[in-house]
Design brief:
Blueprint (H helix, E strand, L loop, with lengths): L6 E5 L3 H12 L3 E5 L11 E4 L1 H9 L3 H7 L1 E2 L2 E6 L5 E6 H4 L6 E4 H14 L3 E3 L4 E7 L2 E6 L4 E2 L3 E4 L6 H7 L5 E13 L7 E7 L2 E8 L4 E9 L11 E2 L1 H7 L5 H8 L4 E8 L7 E4 L2 E5 L14 H18 L3 H30 L3 H17 L1 H6 L2 H4 L3 H4 L2
Parallel strand pairs: 1-2, 1-12, 2-8, 5-14, 12-20
Antiparallel strand pairs: 3-7, 4-7, 5-6, 9-10, 10-11, 13-16, 13-18, 14-15, 15-16, 17-18, 19-20
Helix pairs in contact: 1-5, 1-9, 2-9, 9-10
Length: 396
């Protein structure tokens, strides 16, 4: 039977929702996306698309738009935050030729995915807030803020951290605060800045920066350990003075960047368990989780958007491959759950390495310097299992 003519409703028009809607529509499904916002206008922020995510964008036929919107990454540099000294450099262009690492403004990725979805025939409906989902014998029931009830045959929850479909499957699960918070800001970029992701490491804090939009902008993510709880929200504005104060012990170059930040956003970093159940199916009707709704991750491997793209491809492929909906959704979870859990765990461990202090920090930096000189390919190879994974080749 495949996907030809199957009606599917997707909750959320973020990276996950737009990617899966195009993937499904290209295979013949009739897709409607329900998005609560009035417009697809993302708060200014950057993201990194690694080769595993780029493979999906190519598979979706969006390679030209992706290449035009993204800035090709040349290298990753780890630096001592206090004095800007280079600890080690991983030269992506030399060590991984032909692999696509790019820096994008999130709004640009959303725009190209939205255009791709519409071009594939997806019906994108804004101002459609779904407040509650019921999973009952007759199928999923969506309750909207306007009082309407919708009964799709298949609903996909790509509605992020606070997913209403996740709540329907698992109830309310309290996440664990990591005692870390992060600021996000975008500032003007100095002309000619190299396309390099820099990680400035300091005691109990670190700052990541890279250029965007052809080098016209610079993205900043600054992470600090603290005991004060902060809301888990992408839209909480903060005073840029707080961010500057937290990094006043960093190098003049970093402090100069932060002085340019006119506004910033603050969010608390929480650990969420990967969903135990990614789907529900009964009587030929069903529901499935996608992206952050299934496996929220900390930002320390830059894999949130990439995992969402992988999910989107695999879910569409499984639905197209299987006539039985329950078998398709079970195959999707089986293909994705272990990999995503491993990435989430690896991201959680990365932050600790950036925040070392005292003698342990000095020893770690010395080890990184030696490894960078003697075996840079081996250092980068630690994460080949992430970046070298191509779901479009495994689930065509």
């Amino acid at each position: 039977m495949g996907l030809a003519g199957r009606k599917i409703t997707v909750l959320g028009a973020g990276v996950a929702g737009l990617a899966v809607s195009r993937a499904l529509a290209l295979r013949g499904a009739e897709v409607t996306v329900l998005e609560q916002a009035a417009e697809l206008d993302d708060i200014g922020a950057g993201l990194q698309i690694s080769p595993n995510g780029a493979a999906v964008l190519r598979g979706l036929g969006l390679d030209a738009a992706f290449t035009a919107a993204g800035l090709a990454a040349e290298a990753v540099e780890l630096r001592d935050g206090r004095d800007d000294r280079l600890v080690t450099r991983l030269d992506l262009a030399r060590l991984r030729p032909g692999q696509d690492y790019r820096f994008l403004h999130r709004a640009d990725l959303i725009a190209l995915l939205a255009e791709g979805a519409r071009d594939a025939g997806v019906n994108l409906r804004l101002l459609q807030k779904v407040e509650r989902v019921e999973l009952v014998p007759g199928g999923p029931v969506l309750h909207s803020a306007q009082g309407a009830e919708l009964r799709p045959g298949l609903v996909i929850g790509a509605d992020g951290l606070h997913s209403v479909l996740h709540r329907a499957l698992h109830g309310v699960i309290a996440p664990q605060f990591t005692m870390q918070t992060a600021w996000r800001a975008v500032i003007p970029c100095q002309p000619g800045a190299p396309p390099v992701a820099e990680v400035h490491m300091g005691p109990r804090r670190h700052l990541v920066s890279y250029p965007l939009r052809g080098g016209r902008l610079r993205n900043i993510v600054a992470v600090e350990e603290r005991h004060r709880w902060v809301e888990e929200s992408w839209s909480l504005k903060d005073d840029a003075l707080e961010m500057r104060f937290a990094f006043e012990g960093f190098s003049p170059r970093v402090r100069g960047w932060l002085e340019q930040a006119e506004e910033c956003w603050l969010w608390g970093l929480f650990v969420h368990p990967v969903a135990r159940h990614w789907y529900w199916a009964e009587g030929g009707r069903g529901a499935a989780l996608l992206g952050d709704a299934a496996h929220p991750t900390l930002p320390f491997l830059a894999q949130g958007a990439n995992m969402a793209l992988e999910d989107a491809w695999v879910l569409a492929a499984m639905l197209d491959r299987h006539d039985d909906l329950a078998a398709a959704l079970a195959g999707y979870q089986a293909a994705r759950a272990d990999r995503c859990a491993r990435i989430v765990a690896a991201a959680a461990g990365n932050a600790r390495a950036y925040h070392l202090r005292g003698p342990l920090r000095d020893m770690a930096h010395l080890g990184l310097r030696l490894a960078g000189r003697l075996a840079p390919a081996a250092m980068l190879g630690r994460f080949d299992w992430i970046y070298g994974h191509d779901v479009t080749a495994r689930t065509p």
